[in-house]
Every structure is written in structure tokens, then in C-alpha cells.
Amino acid sequence: MTTASKNLEIINEKKMFDDLLPEVIMTLQNKSKLSEVPQIGDWLKKMLHYNLVGGKHTRGITTVISYKTIEKPEKVTEHTLKMACKLGWCVEMFQAYCIVLDDIMDGSSVRRGMPCWYRRPEVGITCAFNDSLLIHSSLFEFLKTNFRTNPNYMKMFELFNETLWRTSMGQHLDHVTGNRKTDYSSFTLDRYYTIIKYKAAYYTYNLPVSLGLLLAENVDEKIYKSAQDICLEIGTMFQIQDDFIDCFGDEIKTGKVGTDIQERKCTWLAVQALQRCTEAQRTVFKACYGSSEPAHVERIKRLYEDLHLPQIYKHQEKAMYDNIIRQIENIPIEAARVLFKKLLDITYNRQH
């Protein structure tokens, strides 16, 4: 498949996926449980629309692509694709739930080119915390409405809970590692890879891919193990890319302002810098990292450039790509190889 045809496929998948959102919101807004408190229904509609519209919807679309690629072609129908999209919107609600809380924790200002939800004048931090619970509850309400008769419903339910547990573990590690003032002894590659495995890789790739497999019929059990291993590898690449984009990305393309330096995050760039810097450069790093002063932020970026981290990043991204390709080629099931190559191609060399 050519690059142009791959891009067209993604565009078509995204249109089909995005077109279903009004139905998703309407289904939740019209729940009988809200009949006595219609103002909650109106707020839920506004809040879900704000936090689900925009962005690439990569995780939701990955659910659809996973189902469509693994399922037997004769079983892929308009109805089953719609169900895959509904399952994908559950993933996007999971993402929105995490984002609302993450933006509060990180003190972020912009998300997808708009003010973060908690920064809306009619919302605020207290309301946003409760809204995150509304999103979380809506996810499971929508999942039950559409999939409770599916034989894999409980596995889907448990997968969301397990993913939330793992993601919360990663968030905790991320917070405590970056909250040690000028002590950077924990900024190691081992700690970094543990953080991103739990904080990002499980819910960015393993969750949507596993859900797509659960929706398909008679999936070979061997695929599940291969799926988790490779999803975690692609998820690691994804987060390293995120770290780089947060620092060097185009804010117009990303739709958000990078804040990793100001928040003293344990990122790939920070870990690499500490491994390579001289004592003088380490002094600069300790003086400027974690500061919100624009001059300090720019000094850290200049330090990264002095250490040639952009070039090292491109080399590592390519090395990770080659390693994942080798793993994919060892999978004995063709449909699985096709799926993982699709996901890798979507992820590799991304700019936002």
C-alpha cells in the first residue's frame, strides 16, 4: 500500500468515526437516568462535546483499524464497523477522562488549540474534577448500553479498569519523579521507561488494539500476546515522540503549549541530557530545569541542541522502528503482521 493510499484510508476511517459522535452524545444525554435532572443532560452534552471534539482521535480510530484488519473480511459489515466505532468512542472517553485530570495536575493552559476544560470560566478546578467522573461514568454507561450482550463484554469492562489502574500507576511515578526539586538521581532510563510503559503505552495502544481483537470473532489466542508486546514497543516510541514534540514541536500543529521543562518532567530529552552533559552543563540544567521563566526554558532547549539531542532522537526513532519491524516479521499470523505494520506506519515520524 502506498503512502497516499494509507493516508486516504486513515482519512476515511476518521470521517466514519467522527460522524458517529453526535449519536454517542445523544445516547448518553437521553438516558432515562437523567430525565429528572435535564440540566445535567445539557451540561453532559456540552462537556462531552468540548472534550471529545478535535484532536486526531488516534486511539479510537486504532480500535476500528484493529477490528477491521483482524476480523474475517466477510464478517466486516456496516453494522460491525459502527460497533467498532462505538467501542472506539469509549476509548476516546477514557482519553478525555485522563486529559481533564492530567491538565489540572500539570497546570496546562491549552489543549487541542483551546483552553483546557478546567480553565473555562464556567468550569474551574472543582467542577472539572467532578466532570472527569461524569466522563468516566459515561464511558461505562455507553459500554453497557452497546455491548452488554457481547460475549466479551466483561473482558472489555475489565480491560478498561486494568488500563486505568496501570495508567494511574504511571501518573504516580511521573509525579513523584518530577517533584524532587533539584534531585535528578531518579532521572534514569529505567525509571523513564517504566513511567511511559504504565502512563502511556498501555492505554495508547494496548487498550484500543485489545478491544478491536475482542470485538472480532474467533481471534487466535497467539495474537493477544504478540499484540501486547508490540503495542508496548510502539507505545514507547509514541511517548518518546511526545516528549520531543513537547519541546521542539510546532504549537500550531500540536494544538498545545509544551510544558515538560517547566513541570520538571522526567522526559527522554531530560534523561539523555543528564547522561551526556558536562559538569558545567549539569549546573545549567539544575538551575533552569523546572523553571517557568521563558529565558530558562529557552536555555534548556539550547542545551538540548548543544548536546545534539534532535539528531540523536531521529537516530533512536529509526532504530526503534527497525526493531519493531523485526518483531512484526516474526509473527506467524499474516493479519496480525498487517495490523501492526499499519499502526507502526501511522506512528513513525509523526510531527504532532
Summarize the structure.
Helix content is 73%, strand content 1%.
What keywords describe this structure?
about 350 residues; mainly alpha; two-stranded antiparallel sheet; 15 helices; 2 strands; about 75% helix
Structural commentary:
The protein has 352 residues and is an all-alpha fold. Helices cover 73% and strands 1% of the residues. It has a two-stranded antiparallel sheet. Helix 12 (279-288) packs antiparallel against helix 13.
Q: What is the CA-based Rg, rounded?
A: 21 Å
The portion of residues assigned to helices is over 70%
Amount of beta strand? under 5%
Let me know the average pLDDT: 92
DSSP, total strands: 2
Distance between the termini: 23 Å
The stretches of 5 or more residues where confidence is low (pLDDT under 50) are: none
Structural class: mainly alpha
| Number of separate helices | 15
The largest pleated sheet is described as: 2 strands, antiparallel
How do the SSEs run, as a string of H and E? HHHHHEEHHHHHHHHHH
Please state the overall shape, judged from the principal axes of the Cα atoms: globular
Spatial order of the strands forming the largest sheet: 1-2
Oligomer: single chain
